[in-house]
Specification:
A four-stranded antiparallel β-sheet has the order 1-8-3-6. Strands 2-7-4-5 form a four-stranded antiparallel β-sheet, with no helix packed on it. A hairpin with an 8-residue loop joins strand 4 and strand 5 (about 60-65). It is built from four helices and eight strands. It is α+β, with helices and mostly antiparallel strands. Helix content is about 30%, strand content about 30%. The protein is globular. It binds adenosine-3',5'-cyclic-monophosphate. Adenosine-3',5'-cyclic-monophosphate binds next to helix 2.
Amino acid sequence: VPFFRGLPPDDFDQVVDLLRPLTFLADDVVVREGEEGDSLFLIGRGVVRVQREGSDEPLATLLAGDFFGEMALLSGKPRNATVRAVTHCSLYELRRKDLAILHELRPDIRRALELAYLQRSSPAPASA
Ligand code: CMP
């Protein structure tokens, strides 16, 4: 995951300890629109699709190295879309209580999350 590139080995070990590895099968729902959420997910392996309930058109397809779930985590609002595994996926979950520790190690991570939040709230046409 690009976030963690360049992290000194000791810090990396500390970050890895904060993450909970999870496995999902194709078609499993990881987060559901409207539910409360207090964690975000990093994609280690696999592909997920982000979709609004009742819409056939996906908002995004995310791959290894991407993350999702930052919107509910940062805003405290319910999940604004459903994220479903397209393939078998290895994900790493980071919960709100551990985010502060991560921010101490990597202040730039907060900016990366906030930037994604802004871009995903009002995506420019034809942008990724
Ligand atoms: P959250 O609202 O916590 O749960 C659903 C997630 O889908 C959301 O956080 C984002 O991480 C992701 N998401 C929502 N809209 C988009 C979008 N337009 N592009 C990419 N990801 C999105």
